[in-house]
Amino acid sequence: MNRRDFLFTAAAGAAASCTGLGSDRDLLVPGLPCPRPPQLAWQRAELGVVFHYDLHLFDDTRYVQAQNRRAPIADLSIFDPRALDTDQWLAAAQAAGARFAILTASHETGFRLWPSDCNPWSVKNTPWRGGRGDLVGDFVASCRRHGIAPGIYLGARWNAHLQVLDFRVQQGGEPAQRAYNQLIEREVGEVCSRYGPLFELWFDGGVLAPRDGGPDVLPIFAAHQPDCLYYHSDERADARWGGTESGTVGDPCWATVDLPAVRTQTWNAAKMELLRHGDPNGRDWCPAMADAPLRNHEWFWEPGDEHKLYPVERLVEMYFGSVGNNATLILGATPDRRGLVPDADFERMAQMGRAVARALGAMVATTSGRGRELTLEVPDAAPFDVIVLQEDIEFGERVRSYSVEARTGTDTWTPIATGTCIGHKHIHRVAVTTAPRLRLRIDAATATPLLTRFEVRRSGA
After folding, report:
1. Is residue 8 within 8 Å of residue 394, measured between CB atoms?
2. Any bridge partners for residue 150, and if so which?
3. Out of 5, 105, 348, 438, which residue is the most buried by the measure of CB atoms under 10 Å away?
4. Domain boundary, last residue among 331, 360, 389
C-alpha cells in the first residue's frame, strides 16, 4: 500500500457515501478556500482517540499538571508496563468507532516512548522489555493491524526533565536553548522517518516557530510526511482547537478562518469565539477539533477514578455536538500502569460506539445533487427523526443558510430544520416525522451548492 492509499484508508467509511460530485476540477471557485488532501481525510475520518501515556503514571503520585511540568522524575527504572498490549488499546478505539488514533510519544515529563538515538531519556534506558522496547513502533503497528490510521503527539512546550517551560529552557541561556531546539528537530526527524506514513502529527500546545526562537521542524515534517496533517505552529496549522475540552464546538462551526487570528498568542473572548465558530469569510481552511477525555477532565490514568467516566449519554452528545456539527472529535483514553486500557474504560468506549450507532439509526431515504433545491422521496412516508446533510467540501463550504421542509399536505411545506453551515457534515435530530417528500432549500450560498448527502434516518434509541 502506498503512502497516499494509506492516508485515505481511515476515511474510507465516511467517504463511501460521496457520489463523485468532486470529480470535476472545473468546480473549483477562485478565492474559495478548500482543504488539502490531509485535511480532507482528517475531516472525513470524523472520530479519533488520543492515548495519553507518560512516565509519571508509575511514580505513585497523583498527576497535577502545574507540578508535573516543573518537577523532574529522577528514576527511569520505574517505567515497566509488563502487560502492555497496544492491540488492546486499538480494539478499544475500534469499539468506540474511531478511524484514527494518536499516541503521546512525549509529554510534559520529557520522557520519550520510542528508543531515541538523540535523547537518552527514553524507553531504551528502562527495564521495560530489557531496554529493547519501542512503544511508538508497537502502537503504529497495532493501528495498521486494526485498519486505524496512526498519529503521533509530541510535547515540546514543556519538559520537566530539561526544565523547559512554555518553550523556554530555564537555565543555560541561549546555548541551552539552541541545544534544546536541535534536540527537538532530531526527535521530529526520528518520529517522522521511522514509522511510515502518519495521519496526524500533533504538537502539544503548538511548537514555537524559528522566528520566535523555536526549533525548525516544519521542513523536517514536510520532507518525511507530505500527506500528514500538521497540528500546529505559527508557521502552519492544518486544524484548530475548538476552544474547549468539552468534546463540542459552537453552532455554526465553519472550517475557515484567517490564520493570523488563530496564531496570535493573545487569548481573549474574541479568539475563543473564533476557535469555536470559525469564520465563514475566512481566507484559510482550518477545520475544528473537538477534544475531551473519556474520564471527566482526566487525561492520564489514576487508580480508583472509574467514577469519572462520562456517562454514555454525555458521550453521545459529544458526538452530535462535534461530528454532527462539522468538527472532528478526538476522545482521550487512559491506559494504566499495566499497559492496558482499564476494563471499565474499554466497556464505556464500546458502549459509546453502540449508542452512537443506535442514535444514528437506519437509513430511510437518501439523495445527493447540485443546486439550491434538492427533493427527497421517502418510500411509504416512513417515519424518521434524524437528518444528515453533507457538502462536497473538497470544493469548499458553499452553503450559508438552508432549511429542510416536509410536505405535509398537497401544497403545504413545513420547515422541520434550519441552519447556516453544513460543511463536511451537519446532523439534525428532530421529532419523529412522516412525510412522503422532503426538500432541502439553500437560501444563501457563495457558489453552486454541492451536496453529497441529503438523508433521513430512524434512530433506534
Report:
1. no
2. 101
3. 105
4. 360
- The C-alpha cell at 25 is 476540477
Query: If you average pLDDT over residues 391-403, what whole number do you get?
Result: 98
Q: Is 191 exposed, middle or buried (0-12, 13-18, 19+ CB in 10 A)?
A: buried
CA separation for the pair 331, 139 (Å, rounded): 17
Give me the CATH number covering residue 404: 2.60.120.260
Query: Residues 408-443: pLDDT tens digits?
Result: 877 899 999 999 999 999 999 999 999 999 999 999
| Residue 232: cis peptide before it, omega within 30 degrees of 0 | yes
pLDDT in tens, 83-107: 999 999 999 999 999 999 999 999 9
Select from 334, 360, 386 the last residue of a domain. 360
- Domain containing 371 equals 362-458
Residue 433 vs residues 63, 67, 283: alpha-carbon distances, Å: 49, 54, 39
E strands in 57-148: 100-104
What radius of gyration do the chain's Cα atoms show? 23
Domains in the chain, number: 2
Local structure of 333: helix, strand or coil? strand
**Alpha carbons 52 and 34: distance in angstroms, whole number:** 32
Please name the residues in contact with 445: beta carbons below 8 A apart, sequence gap of 6 or more. 372, 398, 399, 400
Residue 242 near residue 288 (C-beta atoms within 8 A) = yes
27 confidence band (pLDDT: 50, 70, 90): confident
224 CA to centre of own chain: 21
CA 315, CA 69: separation in Å to the nearest integer? 29
Looking at the fold, whether 240 and 378 belong to one and the same domain comes out as: no
- 29 domain-assigned: no
pLDDT band at 267 (very low <50, low <70, confident <90, very high): confident
Question: Based on the domain organization, do 350 and 405 belong to the same domain?
Answer: no
Whether the CB-CB separation of 72 and 163 falls below 8 Å is answered with yes
d(CA 360, CA 458): 7
Same domain membership, residue 262 and residue 167: yes
pLDDT at position 182: 98
Cβ contact 165:8 at 8 Å? no
Of 198, 108, 117, 118, whose CA–CA distance to 150 is shortest? 198
Q: Are residues 356 and 436 in the same domain?
A: no
- What pLDDT, in 10s, does the model give residues 321-347? 999 999 999 999 999 999 999 999 999
